[in-house]
Design goal:
Number of domains: 3
Number of helices: 19
Strand content: 15-25%
Helix content: 25-40%
Shape: globular
CATH topology of the largest domain: Rossmann fold
Length: about 650
Amino acid sequence: MTLYKFTYSIIITTLVLFGLQIPTHWLYLIFLAIGLVGIIFQHSARLFLYLVIAYTLFIVFYAPLITLSATLVPQFQPKVISVLIITLALSLLGRMFLYSDRAESVERNWLKLILLVALIAIYYQINKVLVYGSIALFLAVAAISYGTLNIKPFSIIYDYKKRHIAIALMIFVLLPLLNLIQLDNSKKTIGFIKYHSVWAKEDIPYTIDDWTLKSNYSYSEFSKILSNKYKILNINSEKDLNEVLPQCDAVIIMTPTVPFNVSEKKNIKKFLSLNGKVIVIGDHTDLFGHGRVINDLIQYTGILINYDTHFESDSWYGLVSFRNTLLGKIRPLTASSISVKKPVYVMVWSHNWISEAANYNAPNFFGDLTWTADDKLGDFPMAITAKVGGGHLTLWTDSTMFSNFALYQPRIIQTIDHLINNGAFLSSITYYYSFLIIILFALLLFAYKYRGYLLLIIFFMSSVASGLYLVYFTETDGYYNPQSQINIFCEENIIREAPSSKDPELYSLSNLYSNIARFDLQPKWISEGPSRCSANQTCIWLTTYENYSNWKGKKPTHIIIIDDHEDISRLGYKRTFANAESTFLGLGEGSNRQLWITSDSKHSIVLPKTLIFASDGVLDDYTIGNWWATIEVSLYRKEMIKRFISWIRT
């Protein structure tokens, strides 16, 4: 047995370990570089073709395999079974593309080196999922790979001609032109089905008249930003559904808790069949029965929302990324996972996250929120778009992100834009590819004379279906009211709220940030460092004193110094305690509270072209409480936030 014969494990490892985590545009550039080298080195040409086809097969069929594995072998982690199946399938494919008995010795040595890295990575991946069975599973993967080498029908020793590689590269280089299909600036009409939910309500506005959890969990701001961008048709009855649905380009269904009747389901199904888009937004653990209502509505499509809590095993602040975007990472709050029984376009994958079943004896059906023996760990879809009839169904599994208190967190509004406007093209391509690829591979086994041409056809189809070239653009333009928008610059952890069971981060201002929208202002997070603001914009930079003092560029109009640096005194402040004086703002919350004030007992200083506010001990989460402490809001908190808003408007 020679090591280089296990070369096919490279792609298994690369795809399972990194294929879901590396941004698609970077994978596109990596594959393209390998293809360019392939013009000179034949093995690189084989590897280029194999990578594109194998990646596409993996990304198209991995989600159904996860669901199938969880159904047929529930006692095992579904990711383990899926890895074994993918290993077998892609090893057979590798027999066609990579292995050549005429390989040069230098080429073999390189393959041995790459393989060594692959074997270590495979061991790590399986060990992460199932610790004690990792060695046995690793040997199983190796045995499957080796066993495919002598299967003659899959042995295609094909010396690719340079013109064939040139054609393949030309196709691959031109594919980014398909991004032009996104250029649709027409204003959409969106229907919002509201009468099926007793949970996702918007009737409680986010104002200073109600500081309770009801207003925080209301979706009034969500409706407001949608109305700024689109023509919104509210659907408040079955009669509205019948009359309004034909006028809509898309329809939103948010955490429905009242089941749809036969007539309503028929109308929604008809809307989908006539090129409409249905956007369904769920949440965790089938809370209030919304998961069962969703599944009753969409189960005929082969898509189901799971009754679980989905979270990152190592951190409350787990992040996920949308594929085919430059959006960056987002932080789900109370998500669930998705099961699919057919190939769909998976917009968001979790990687080694926990799927914890609902605990119906606990508040809000949450379990322990820790990894236990009963939980599943692996890769799960969290957002999908599927072709259904002539239209498309999008399912997203975290509604909490869109509630008033969280809506203006970084990248949330871009997420809304992405769910509404994108995903249709790749979901259609995935749908047709899953059928055609099976037919072409069947022909490949028997049409020996035309195998070279068939492989190029398969490559072309896989290149398009891979989506590596496609970048869906997201925007916030139109969602914000220009008169209400304020630009925020800060590190993201400063404005991220901690869970109720954990202490907030030092100097964090998450509670303050989430309450800005109560005052008819719309905070828009821009970046960590300040950038240029126009004369009519309000820009606020939340930063440490050290960053402020070292910043060489133009400073925003409003700066919040968040920490307790001793050199803050250079700005004209003095350090004191909350009970040291009786005149300055902030008296009464705690005798040991230390903060900075000016000589006239204020927290802000006016400098030329800049207003500075020292927030430590005044409006940080440790002083006024984090977001979860909002049932009985103290008068101090209300008053200080009001004065802060007045400072913003100065």
